[in-house]
Amino acid sequence: MNSNLHGTIKDSATLRWTAIILISFTQFFAYMFFDVLSPLQTMLEKQCHWSANTYGIFSGSGYFLNVFAFFLVFAGIILDKMGIRFTAILSSIVMIIGAGIKLYAISSYFTAGNVLYDFLNSFWTSFPANAKLASIGFAVFGCGSEMTGITVSKATVKWFTGKEMALAMGLGLAISRLGVFAVFRLSPFVASLGTETVVRPVAICGSFLCIGLLAVIAYTFMDKKLDEQLGKDVNLTKEEPFKVSDLGMLFTNKTFLIIAFLCVFYYSAIFPFQKFATSMLESNLKMSTDNASAMFSWFPVGAMILTPLLGWYLDKKGKGVMMLIWGAILMSACHLTFAVYPFEAGMSST
């Protein structure tokens, strides 16, 4: 007789929430590392001799392989084929590798000069060699980060089907947003300890990714236990194998395309703003890096608080389309405020 007739560990609210919090910790640390340099753009310009254009190209590199090399599609295939446990560990390792490359790129060990430095400095000379290598590392990290995101989503579905699924997804996103808040608070402070350097916060946030890997490993034991308890039902409810023709069906689905385009516009509005927000406040309001970063750190707090509440509302009431419409209206209004409001007397923001 299957043990799932007597309940499984996901039927315990404490255990299923513990499982999702464990795997969400990786995403928390990933969000910290993703934005560790965002409040330090001015410092990067001084120490690494990066222009605003260089910083912008570097910031975009985190998404490059996912978009133009379709890695995120391959990540989904890996997740479907190999399962949550394998993909969660793999994504954490990929993030650590990418973080290591990025850390080495901005350190004095690389800029002191070597064969790799000379090679990267031999072409596209307007883009510094350390920025090239940092972009490569950030692109690798981005692959792991996005793979982590879809893995956490699938784990949430696995543990919360028939339960508080939207609330669980909201809590997972809230934990991630807490990472953004934390790094905008900590990064300038850590960089200013002792000798001012951008390397120190990157190294610390990189070490946090190792802690995230340990949290994922702890999660895998719970996930394996759940599969054992489900027993034969795991095979009975197994998903259909991936077929290339599935991609054609997906990209001709109007609902999917609408949601996908909405995500594109959301990402293009939020993440570039997030990368340049500290510098914008420094320029428009003549604030110090510490104060500008501290002010912007409150930006994700609203999302952190509201996302679980909106998830709970979605579980209870639905009305997801109206929530999307209102979200788009609010975001447009906020961006227009930053774009046209004269932050300084007699001057318009740029």
UniProtKB/TrEMBL annotation:
Tell me which InterPro entries the record gives: MFS, MFS_trans_sf, MFSD1
Q: Which Pfam families does the protein's record reference?
A: MFS_1
Give the signal peptide, or none.
none
Q: Where are the transmembrane segments?
A: 15-34, 54-79, 86-111, 131-153, 165-186, 198-222, 255-274, 294-314, 321-343
**Where is it located?**
Lysosome membrane
Q: Which GO terms describe its molecular function?
A: transmembrane transporter activity
* Key words, A-Z: Lysosome, Membrane, Transmembrane, Transmembrane helix, Transport
Q: How does it sit in the membrane?
A: Multi-pass membrane protein
Q: Which GO terms describe its cellular component?
A: lysosomal membrane
Is Transmembrane helix there in the keyword field?
yes
Record field: catalytic activity: L-lysyl-L-alpha-amino acid(out) = L-lysyl-L-alpha-amino acid(in); L-lysyl-L-lysine(out) = L-lysyl-L-lysine(in); L-alanyl-L-lysine(out) = L-alanyl-L-lysine(in); L-alpha-aminoacyl-L-histidine(out) = L-alpha-aminoacyl-L-histidine(in)
Q: In which family does this protein belong, per the annotation?
A: Belongs to the major facilitator superfamily.
Subunit structure of this chain's protein: Homodimer. Interacts with lysosomal protein GLMP (via lumenal domain); the interaction starts while both proteins are still in the endoplasmic reticulum and is required for stabilization of MFSD1 in lysosomes but has no direct effect on its targeting to lysosomes or transporter activity.
Give the protein's biological function.
Lysosomal dipeptide uniporter that selectively exports lysine, arginine or histidine-containing dipeptides with a net positive charge from the lysosome lumen into the cytosol. Could play a role in a specific type of protein O-glycosylation indirectly regulating macrophages migration and tissue invasion. Also essential for liver homeostasis.
From the Swiss-Prot or TrEMBL record, give the protein name. Answer: Lysosomal dipeptide transporter MFSD1
Q: Read off the lineage from the record.
A: unclassified sequences, metagenomes, organismal metagenomes
